Amino acid sequence: MSRLYIKIKLFLNFMSIIHNFCITGKNYEFLNALNLNIILSGSEFKNLNDYPTAWIKDNQGKNISNKNKNFGTLTSHYWLWKNKLKDFSENDWIGINHYRRYWIKQAYKENVKISNLSNSILRNVPDENTFDVLLPEKINLNIKLSKLIKKGFKNYITNPFLLFNLNKLSIKLHFDLFHGYGLLSDATKLLNDHDKNDFEKYIKNKHSFYPLEMFISKKIIIEDLYSKTFEWIFKCEEKFSHLELKGYGKERLYDFLAERYFSFYFEKYARIKTWPYALIKEDLK
Predict the structure, then answer these.
(1) pLDDT digits (tens, 9 = 90+) for 202-261
(2) Coil vs helix vs strand at 276
(3) pLDDT of residue 147
(4) Which of 154, 180, 188, 222 has its CA 20 to 30 A from that of 55?
(5) Cβ-Cβ contacts under 8 Å for 20 (sequence gap 6 or more)
(6) Residue 32: which residues within 8 A CB-CB, separation 6 or more?
């Protein structure tokens, strides 16, 4: 056995393991070959006989699975927080994947398919002393003029200059246009005192954010994130209980709110490193 091989093996053993979870709402056979902890989102409304027994069901233990229609993937995040995080030590690394999106090794950035997905998945933490969380690249917020005219009447009537700055929407304006006018601003008022003012500035001044509620981070950070998020989201649920949440932009309102807060939280409280993920575009079976 060569010295180089021994050094590589020792290095890989030294690298921290990522405890990977994957959230899905559907039964895809290829998921079973990925060696991930699969969480079935919205289990409360599924016929569980149609899903593998090894999968985690988010309606077991302490759960809010019955809220899945308006909470989306948050019901799985909640299950993880209340039922599984206790099994990890504070410095254990935990990764969140989605059924079409997976954290991958740098060398596999291109041409990831179902056939090579298992080998492509990132399973050890790279250079962990340089960051607290891995996040996908930010998305920049913009809109076509036709959509702004159709969706943003209240916005451009109060601020006509928006018509000339379509490539630089604030997080707040983007949310107004696609998820309901004024809802993000009203929700901000319900945040804890430590975050309220900072979050208000964040949504007004930032023109991009870290999307998808995907991350790899340590238990101690994730636990704090979940605690702050759900304290706020449950207040929002009470505040907006009179609303009829229908259509893509509003039905999962609380998931969209949390997505913005996740991004804010990591920017405020953690050292961020962006990392590639694979989007599986093949027809899933």
Answers:
(1) 999 999 999 999 999 999 999 999 999 999 999 999 999 999 999 989 999 999 999 999
(2) coil
(3) 53
(4) 222
(5) 36, 37, 94, 95, 97, 103, 121, 123
(6) 38, 52, 54
Q: Which two tokens stand for residue 209?
A: 């954010």
Which has more confidence, 143 or 7? 143
Tokens encoding 48: 């569980």
**Distance from C-alpha of 123 to C-alpha of 62, rounded to nearest angstrom:** 28
**What are the backbone angles phi and psi of residue 52, rounded to the nearest 5°?**
-60, 140
* CA 215 – CA 250 distance, rounded (Å): 24
DSSP structure class, residue 84: I
d(CA 250, CA 4): 55
Distance between CA atoms of residues 80 and 234, nearest Å: 17
Judge whether residue 146 has pLDDT over 90.
no
DSSP 247: S
**Maximum separation of any 2 CA atoms in the chain, in Å:** 73
- Summarised one tens digit per residue, pLDDT across range 31-40 is 999 999 999 9
> Where is average pLDDT lowest: 8-12, 68-72, 261-265?
8-12
Amino acid at residue number 175: F
With the CA atoms of 9, 11, 12 and 14 taken in that order, what torsion angle do they form, in degrees rounded to the nearest 10? 120
- The C-alpha atoms of residue 187 and residue 199 are separated, in whole angstroms, by 10
**pTM for the complete prediction?**
0.91
Site of tokens 């991958």? 104
